[in-house]
C-alpha cells in the first residue's frame, strides 16, 4: 500500500461514517481519495452548488453556514481534524444545503461522488455498512436536537463550548486553558440562541473564572466546570 493511501486509510478510520468498515474497505475508499488544500477564509463550496465531492479534514478548521432570507449568515457546524462534510455526495448529486468555508488553512482528502458510487456498486457490502452508520448519525442528531429543545440557553452554550474543547483536546490541547477560536455570534448560532443571551452567559462564565474571552476566541480554563451548567 502506498504511504499516502496508508495515511488516508488511517484518517478515514477516525471518521464515524466509516467506523463500521474493515481495513480492506478503508483501503478501497482511500484509493479513490485525493489530497486537497484550501487557504484560510476560502469557500470550499456554496449552498446551491452541485453536490459532487465529500471531504475529510486532515488539519485545520472549517464551518458550515447558511444565509438567512434577511441576509444574515447563520453558523450550523464547525469541522476539525477527522470530521467529514458533504458526505451525502457519496450517494447522490443533489444541491448543497449549506456553504462550507475555511477558518484557517485546511488540508483534507476529497472523495468524488462518482468514484464512491462506483466503489459502492462494486462492493455492495460497503454500501450497507455506510447506510447503517449514516442512520446511526441521524438518530444521534435527532436525539441531540430533542435534548436541546428542553435545555436552557446556558445549558446549550455550555454544551457547545464543551464540544469545541473536546475537539481542541483531540488536536493536542491540554486539560486546562484550552483556546477555542470562535466568535460569540457563532457560539450563539451553534447553541440556537440569540447573541445577546449567549453573551450574557459567557460573561457569567468569565466572572466565575471558567473562561476568558478575547476577540474571536475563548480560553476555557476549566472544562470540567462547564458540566455544572449542562442539564
From TrEMBL:
Q: Can you say what this protein is called?
A: Crp/Fnr family transcriptional regulator
Q: Which ranges form a coiled coil? A: none
Keywords noted in UniProt? DNA-binding, Transcription, Transcription regulation
The keyword Transcription regulation is annotated on this UniProt entry: yes
Xref: InterPro entries: cNMP-bd_CS, cNMP-bd_dom, cNMP-bd_dom_sf, Env_Response_Regulators, HTH_CRP, RmlC-like_jellyroll, WH-like_DNA-bd_sf, WH_DNA-bd_sf
Question: Which ranges carry the Cyclic nucleotide-binding domain?
Answer: 17-137
Mind telling me which SUPFAM superfamilies this protein's record contains? cAMP-binding domain-like, Winged helix' DNA-binding domain
Identify the residues that the record assigns to the HTH crp-type domain, covering every copy.
Answer: 151-224
PROSITE patterns referenced in this protein's UniProt entry, alphabetically: CNMP_BINDING_2 (PS00889), CNMP_BINDING_3 (PS50042), HTH_CRP_2 (PS51063)
